[in-house]
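Board notes (copied after class):
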Amino acid sequence: MRTGGEESTAARFVGRERELAALEGCLAEVLHGHPRVAVVEGPAGIGKTTLVDRFLAAAGGTRIVRGSGEQAERSLAYGLVDQLLRAADAPRAVFASPHRSGDHVSIGLRLLQAFGALEESEPVVVAVDDAHWVDAASLRALLFASRRLVAERILVVIAMRDDERAHVPPGLRRMAEGAGGCVIRLGPLNVPELQRLAAAEGIELPAASARRLHAHTSGNPLHALALLRELPGGAWQDPRGALPVPRSFTEIVLGSLAACSAPTRRLVEAAAVLGRRSPLALAARLAAIDEPFDALEQAVAARLLAPDAGADEYEATFPHPLIETAVYRQIGAARRARLHAEAAALVEDAAVALRHRVAAAPGPDPELAGELAEFARREEGRAAWANVAWALAAAARLSESRSVREPRMLAAAEATLLAGDLEGASRLSERVSDPANPPLRDCVLAFLALLGPRPRDAEPLLERAWRKCDPDAYPETAARVASTTALLRLMEMRGTETEAWSRRAIALTPAPSKVQDQLMTAIGVMLAGRMAEAEATARAMLAENPDASELLCGLGWVLLARDNLAGATVELTRAAAAARRNGSFEQAALAHAHLCRAEYMAGRWDAALAQSEQSLALMAELPNLNVRPMVHWSATLIPAARGDWAATEEIGRLAALDAAGTLDRALVAGLVRALPAAARGDHATVIAALEPFAGADGETGDGIHEPGVWPWHDLYAEALVAAGRLDDAAAFLPAHERRARERGLGSALARLGRARGRLDAARGDIDAAVGAFEAAIEHARLAGVPFEGARAELALGALLRRQGRRREAADRLRAAHTALTDLGATPYLARCDRELSACGLTPMKRSRPDPTRLTPQERSVADLVASGMTNREVAAELLVSVKTVEVHLTRIYAKLGITSRGQLGAQSAGRNPEQSTRIHPMRPSRSVT
């Protein structure tokens, strides 16, 4: 902040009143506990910083936390986060974490905690200037934190150039466009505003001169201000006098620089080499000045540097990045290189020193390139992908050998993708237009396609890469091609081929086998239908890597596909915790999605919703689209069964965006569409959604037909029966029933048994239908899947009622009604009520919503607090703010009629285990080892 020295023009200038009022309106909402995001955008020099300065100067009674982007530091991961944590007086231990500190989720939580700690005593304004030059990792962390503001008195203000909007996550702008936020687009100043700007500089500007100034500068306040300061005040008084020959802003800056003394020029140039903001002592050493204060004072008077901000140490700070750029570019190439080389020897941070050495390098430098590659390897261990991408791209440019340069550039492309920049990754890969190792480039392009919106583009690239690759000459390239091909086959649910390619990758890799290939091997075996072998494979691989969250998640999925709900819950709980510890939020999202299915099948639907919310929250932070299918599917289960059509429509919209990808994405889009349609009885929609996947004969062991992996076959078969397509249903069911029997899957037999009963009833074979329904009920009971049992009871009751067996029907319908009421399956309860009415019975009274019933979010908070965790620990576990936890606790206490954490613990200890998450995914029960 520029708070020292003479009063700034920003503080004296009267203008932009409407825009200022918009920011003040956002702050007024914040003061009432409604957090907001505001975006200020416009071209360079249009006055974004001036507007924010004026707003902050008038925002009395608030704590200002401010940071800004630096063009030279755009690729420096978490540079802005570092500034904001410093400004918030928060410890920066997150950067010294032995785990993967380079993930924006955990660091976003750190920001959330830091802002929340300040907000406890006063409202907070977080102001970020030049957001278009902020590193991508910081912006994603800031977005993560902003999304989780619930009742905090926090306003986030983002200033950025409108022509650089692509560098800022669109989520920040969407938040500003949402309810209560604002997007302020700054245009040029008009003539009266230019007159007021001149008055702030002590110049009375006649209207005629103001019009000439407006035409000359196009109303750009930065350019106008530079010209106002260049000319003496008297030159503006003659309205008929012509303005001097126009000079560009850069020329004005350089004219001011040339008028300074030699020490001042050296200080300003040294500051430009170091960046927009640098310690004065460091800039003085680089400029070879013993007494820098006279030079600093002259530079401030010339408005080349800003007045001292009153920080812990004196700083050399440019008032605007355009001034820094103008000064930096006028330094000759040789002198600039020398200054960067000298700066590298002066700075303490090794990463910053590397950047200066790169800027000083005149051409290929194998030694420096090797150091950059080693730096990238260290940063990869922290998952600091933006740093990895910059270092590898720089190493590629400095590499002499084409055989070394191109793999580094392609690796930089992959790291850029993992940092969340698909467009940047594509640009880097395109730089290798005629590679020395074509299979490697094809493999990288295929990988980019698989993780992006067009995965089908990967197939021809991988085929060509494998055909041209020589495993003896390039074993690592061959292993990468095989591994990427296995990933594609997994997305296509071709189990046997997934297993074959992943085992091939493991055999080709000279280093210890990659965990990802081990995971795909186990999942491939599962998709091929060899369930027991899949479990044994996953356990054997886990013995080698016991803490690998990927293998834990894979084992949990296999157990879930085998109906081992208890075992799946244990392993998936471990997987989610390990993934969080390791910073692998992709695996954490998948683990929560699988846990949602496990809780859904077991009838613990509130717990399932909590898992789904965790999964959706994590998915929103990931650039990898491969996570979405499983997350979207699991997130649809409870809303569809409970009749929350708004939620299912939103998830369906998101899933449809990915439907043109691989088979798993297309199937999920169909399932997300079919599940609510089945609950509504819309059989035509169910058929339309699932028929594209029913054509295969099911004899190949393809994963799409594995009933424990993708349970959709009963929905389709029942819809066929309801549509009168009995022959089609009869032809479809047997293969899937046989597979469910061979796998010993009670849940699948319950679902398919219900469909079989409906088909038999439609054909008039009542005894067979009754037997099928009764068998389905028993399978559901043994498998521990109450919803499937209730649906079979409902179907059987309806059949018995139509046969005139009302007493038997009533018993079945009452049993179904009780189970469906416990689950809250509203659409199915409505059918049950109709059947009971048709039996001549008064429909059973549904219990009204219990006002003391906790929501899934409240239940998660209650369970964790009852286990002894602090609010801050609960917030970290659930990826929310401390304020959110406090709000939930207030509601929990009110609903339960208690006033303390001790009382909550006592109630939790006496609660029925079925009412809560028995094993919380973030904090395993002490009984589980």
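Comment from the instructor: The CA atoms of residues 446 and 815 lie 53 Å apart. The longest strand covers residues 154-161.
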